[in-house]
Design a protein that fits this description.
It is a multi-pass membrane protein. It comes from Cnephaeus nilssonii (Northern bat). This is Solute carrier family 12 member 7. By secondary structure, the protein is α/β, with parallel strands linked by helices. 47% of the residues lie in helices and 9% in strands. It contains 34 helices and 20 strands. A ten-stranded mixed sheet has the order 13-12-11-14-15-20-19-16-17-18, sandwiched between helices. A three-stranded antiparallel sheet has the order 1-2-3, with no helix packed on it. β6 and β7 form a beta hairpin. It is elongated, with a radius of gyration of 39 Å. The two termini are 55 Å apart.
């Protein structure tokens, strides 16, 4: 192993081993001067190179957990958060994985796989020992890993204000280190990355999502909503149904999508919207069963939408652009419709193959053309409005025939064999009068009243179809129309409202952009549709409107003849817009199927989760094309549209259902920020969607619901267990799923000698916290045997049930008779509840009498209960001064609920005030959140990060960052600690056997000496044997008594001569200082919530732990100490 200087940088050091040079950057040299050389690096890396290893191009070194690099003489900072080695259990310091690079890593440290540090790779068979740098193999004084005793742990927390929470820091991060990561969370996942974009990204800096409301949501929604129905069928619907019924159809459909958009806005503002878009929002709210069923309906709807757009493209091409391009020709006039369908199938299949190839080659080409297609739509609509304005003073010269006498005109030559009145004419022409009028008389002509209502049919003489000649200018109806069928044909023109949410991963602020952009797009398109209906009825004659394919206009598009400056503007614009919409559908549907497949909720679809190396959904695209081909083989736009309507209506119905269910259940994770949302709107939207489904086609509706039901039962049968939100299961007493946490509370009540509840207000608080939702178990323990205490147990249970009725606490009562309180409480924590109906939170009162002489060891039950809840992975709530808590009849008209967030333990601390404020007692209280900044923390940035985090959590609260300056420990703290330790040791002395008292005194003396001596810290007292074998005689007994008497006196003398333990002093310093800060800010608060420090791992400090908590909460009226299990989740997701 050779150690040399790196060329070009005197602050860098390189190792050369087996021809490979590994370079260490300057920032790892712990700010030492470069001229100090290689020996400095040995010290700066924490006691020698034997604690580092070069492996796979990375240097693994031992450094403390908060980014300090330990040196022999000092501590230097590397201001970065490092990933920890998962195999280092040492408290206070951890091995870290440090990549070798020329510059310091960014903050926060980028995500990377954690590799065990060099110390844990020593025994790995693939590790070559020769790659370890030379060293003497002896532990160094400054090594945070090798010398991992109490002194090393204490030195790490020396001067720290948060020493009381050092037990928590092993598993839970401090708030200051957590906020930056949470506030800067991005919803952009790796997802599907184009190969070309991936190549470019290697050459440029990665940019965060930056699309705003207009570009990211409004324009995509506009493009997807305005489509083929507007150009090809809206004039025909107005002509057939009349202006009034057409207005009603459009208004119902637009109302349906607006209500759905409001529900979508509520979902979008209920947390960070994941990059998966609409499917993820729906599935994570409803659970896997409904999520899978609705997701597949959404997928099928998008796929059939692609088929509809392709059919629209081919219809425009063959009917209006190039009628002569037909491949299949009719042999007779009756076969023209069939021949047209065959042409649609042939051209549609070819177009589908071509579009699928474009999507397969690269989506980026589709995205680049999206703006071009959108421009075509906008120009076409502008041309329509311009044409309407032009008709007011210069209507187009289009003549129409109706109601004329039998005189020789130009029409005579069309229907008769000569110009003489005796000529043989067409039978229909001979029996009906015809005249020539203007087909598009203009907006000021007054034709509006003629088409205001549905034309029920003009009296005429029926003529058999076979007698008509195809050469005559008749316009025939191809299908029978009625109101419900027109609803099914029109509804696809209002779909596409989820186009913005599908791009959620690309939005700068999805929670703001999706509601605003989607609702504005729906308002815009609704105005366009409704105004077009009125303008069509005011400008165009009814028989022209009823001419679906423009046969009376020499095969021109009806809406095109109205447009200005040329009909070709509409024809070309509609052609490209429908073509672009088809491409967008074929792009979005495979990705939706891929997302469903990757979720694994439908096992037989998992094969479609795979794709090309760059993530493109190849197999999903193939299945999408096959399903799309089914729609194309149907060949009729009017037949495909109702199928498409059914799938989208079902999807929208379940979106509304999800929101209504979540609101009615008051689920804690349902906190939408959208101010205009109300559950009645969701319920109305769900009802309207269901009604429209049956209006369109009752048998299609039943079939679609059958498909969704089969998928639901299949997913349920296969047992897809996903930790998603599940509003449906919440209809019962739900055991809280982790992503839908509601505290399921076990309330531990204390009883007096009359078997009455000591603290009835604890049940009041439970009612206010639960509001009748979820599971509540009220438990208590009687000391004794069951046979002796059976009657008392029944009486106690009766009293508890009576109190639960008075306090309106809904739940169960469970009473245990045990030989001692300690075991009884442990039994309740382990066994209360049944199956899924088990508690996840324990609520109990603070033992106010723990210092009283008549019960000096009541605190032992409390501390053991804290340990039991931790072992059971349950949260713990401790109400201090519980008799001051409000009753259910009281109301706080003002005040604050203050949250002091010291350590992040899963989020329960944030959730509790939100739940309390749902109850009328606390409703008018405002929430404040305080967090503590250390000397080296940026308090201004912490406040900004905390505000951003609360915005994501949808919690409204004032934010304040309190700076705790490191200062000297006061004499008051020393004195208070000394009194605490003396009292603790005196209690121990009274309870110890006389034989053990001497040993205990010696151990106290040894520990006190060790706290001031490094050498003594490494000296461990020999362990006390579990059993002491002694043979007693009378003489030995007398001698032992005399000896114990002297030892007893000397032991108590030692107690008053010892100095306080430094670790206890620092913990007391934290409690005193933090209590002062809390009193300064929150003394007048209605309720204070605090992180509850964990009990010491060493049981010898249990009584000190109680004193720390007492000091921490001293002077506060109502305090709720919260200790989360880490399994609770208050999520920034929906």
């Amino acid at each position: 192993m050779l150690r040399t200087r790196a060329e070009g940088d005197p602050g860098r050091l390189a190792w050369q081993h087996s021809g490979v040079v590994v370079t260490v950057p300057s920032w790892l040299l712990a700010s030492r001067q470069p001229e100090q050389g290689a020996g400095t690096l040995v010290g700066s890396l924490g006691g020698g190179l034997q604690q580092s290893v070069v492996l796979a191009g990375h240097l693994h070194v031992c450094v403390p957990r908060e980014g300090r690099l330990a040196t022999r003489g000092s501590q230097s900072r590397a201001p970065h958060q490092h990933p920890l080695c998962p195999q280092c259990p040492v408290l206070g310091s951890s091995h870290l994985w440090v990549p070798v690079s020329g510059t310091p890593p960014p903050s926060p440290w980028p995500a990377a796989p954690l590799v065990p540090c060099g110390l844990h790779l020593l025994s790995a068979p693939e590790t070559d020992p020769s790659c370890f740098p030379a060293g003497d193999g002896q532990s160094r004084e400054s090594s945070p890993i090798i010398n991992n005793g109490d002194m090393e742990r204490e030195s790490f927390f020396e001067g720290k204000n948060m020493a009381l929470f050092e037990e928590e820091m092993d598993s839970n991060p401090m708030v200051s280190s957590l906020l930056n990561k949470l506030a800067n969370y991005t919803n952009l996942s790796q997802g599907v990355v184009e190969h070309e974009e991936a190549e470019e990204s290697r050459r440029r800096e990665v940019k965060n999502p930056g699309m705003g409301t207009f570009i990211g949501v409004y324009l995509p929604c506009l493009q997807n909503i305005l489509g083929v129905i507007l150009f090809l069928r809206l004039t025909w619907i107005v002509g057939v149904a009349g202006v009034l019924e057409s207005f009603l159809i459009v208004f119902m459909c637009c109302t349906c999508t607006m209500l759905t958009a409001i529900s979508m806005s509520a979902i979008a503002t209920n947390g960070v919207v994941p990059a998966g878009g609409s499917y993820y929002m729906i599935s994570r709210s409803l659970g896997p069963e409904f999520g899978g069923a609705v997701g597949l309906c959404f997928y099928l709807g998008t796929t059939f939408a692609g088929a509809m757009y392709i059919l629209g493209t081919i219809e425009i091409f063959l009917t209006y652009i190039s009628p002569g391009a037909s491949i299949i020709h009719a042999q007779s006039p009756d076969g023209e419709a069939v021949a047209m369908l065959h042409n649609m199938r042939v051209y549609g299949t070819c177009t589908l193959v071509l579009m699928a190839m474009v999507v397969f080659v690269g989506v980026k080409y589709v995205n680049k053309l999206a703006l071009v297609f959108l421009a075509c739509v906008v120009l076409s609509i502008l041309a329509i409005y311009a044409g309407v304005i032009k008709t007011a003073f210069d209507p187009p010269d289009i003549l129409l025939t109706t109601n004329n006498g039998t005189v020789t005109t130009a029409l005579w030559g069309l229907f008769c064999n000569n110009s003489m009145p005796s000529a043989i004419c067409d039978e229909y022409f001979a029996q009906n009068n015809l005249t020539e009028i203007q087909g598009i008389p203009g907006v000021a002509s007054g034709v509006f009243l003629g088409v205001f209502v549905e034309k029920q049919g003009t009296p005429s003489v029926p003529v058999p179809e076979e007698s008509r000649s195809s050469k005559l200018p008749y316009v025939l109806t191809d299908i029978m129309t009625y109101f419900t069928m027109l609803v099914g044909i029109y509804f696809p023109s209002v779909t596409g409202i989820m186009a913005g949410s599908n791009r959620s991963g690309d939005l700068r602020d999805a929670q703001k952009s999706i509601p605003t952009g989607t609702i504005l797009a729906i308002v815009t398109t609704s105005f366009i549709y409704l105004s077009c209906i009125m303008l069509f009825g005011a400008c165009i004659e009814g028989v022209i409107l009823r001419d679906k394919f423009g046969e009376a206009l020499q095969g021109n598009l009806v809406i095109g003849m109205l447009a200005w400056p040329s009909p070709w503007v509409i024809v070309i614009g509609s052609f490209f817009s429908t073509c672009g919409a088809g491409l967008q559908s074929l792009t979005g549907a495979p990705r939706l199927l891929q997302a469903i497949a990757r979720d694994g909720i439908v096992p037989f679809l998992q094969v479609f989760g795979h794709g090309k190396a760059n993530g493109e959904p190849t197999w999903a695209l193939l299945l999408t094309a096959l399903i799309c081909e089914i729609g194309i083989l149907i060949a009729s736009l009017d037949s495909v549209a109702p199928i498409l309507s059914m799938f989208f209506l079902m999807c929208y119905m379940f979106v509304n259902l999800a929101c209504a269910v979540q609101t009615l259940l008051r689920t804690p994770n349902w906190r939408p920020r959208f101010r205009y949302y109300h559950w009645t709107l969701s319920f109305l939207g769900m009802s309207l969607c269901l009604a429209l489904m049956f209006i369109c086609s009752w048998y299609y509706a039943l079939f679609a619901m059958l498909i969704a039901g089969c998928i639901y039962k299949y997913i349920e049968y296969r047992g897809a267990e996903k930790e998603w939100g599940d509003g449906i299961r919440g209809l019962s007493l739900n055991a809280a799923r982790y992503a839908l946490l509601r505290p399921q509370v076990l309330v531990m009540l204390n009883l007096d000698s009359e078997q009455c509840v000591k603290h009835p207000r604890l049940l009041s608080f439970t009612t206010q916290l639960k509001a009748g939702k979820g599971l509540t178990i009220v438990g208590s323990v009687l000391e004794g045997t069951y046979l002796d205490k059976h009657a008392e147990a029944q009486q106690a249970e009766e009293n508890i049930r009576s109190l639960m009725g008075i306090e309106k606490t809904k739940g169960f009562c469970q009473l245990v008779v045990s030989s001692n309180l300690r075991d009884g409480m442990s039994h309740l924590i382990q066994s209360a509840g049944l199956g899924g109906m088990k508690h996840n939170t324990v609520l109990m009162a603070w033992p106010e009498s723990w210092k009283e002489e008549d019960n000096p060891f009541s605190w032992k039950n409390f501390v053991d209960t804290v340990r039991d809840t931790t072992a059971a992975q349950q949260a713990l709530l401790v109400a201090k001064n519980v008799d001051l808590f409000p009753q259910n009849q009281e109301r706080f008209s003002d005040g604050h609920i203050d949250v002091w967030w010291i350590v992040h333990d899963g989020g329960l601390l944030m959730l509790l005030p939100f739940l309390l404020r749902q109850h009328k007692v606390w409703r008018k209280c405002r929430m404040r959140i305080f967090t503590v900044a250390q000397v080296d923390d940026n308090s201004i940035q912490m406040k900004k990060d905390l505000q951003t985090f609360l915005y994501h959590l949808r919690i409204s609260a004032e934010v304040e960052v309190v700076e705790m300056v490191e200062n000297d420990i006061s004499a008051f703290t020393y004195e208070k600690t000394l009194v605490m330790e003396q009292r603790s040791q005196m209690l121990k002395q009274m309870q110890l056997s006389k034989t053990e008292r001497e040993r205990e005194a010696q151990l106290i003396h040894d520990r006190n000496t060790a706290s001031h001596s490094v050498v003594a810290a490494r000296t461990r007292a020999p362990p006390t044997p579990d059993k002491v074998q002694m043979t007693w005689t009378k003489e030995k007994l007398i001698a032992e008594k005399l000896k114990n008497k002297d030892a007893n006196m000397s032991g108590f003398k030692d107690l008053f001569s010892l100095k306080p333990n430094q670790s206890n002093v620092r913990r007391m310093h934290t409690a005193v200082k933090l209590n002062g800060v809390v009193l300064n800010k929150s003394q007048d608060a209605q309720l204070v919530l605090l992180n509850m420090p964990g009990p010491p791992k060493n049981r010898q400090g249990d009584e000190n732990y109680m004193e720390f908590l007492e000091v921490l909460t001293e002077g506060l009226n109502r305090v709720l100490l919260v200790r989360g299990s880490g399994r609770e989740v208050i999520t920034i997701y929906s």
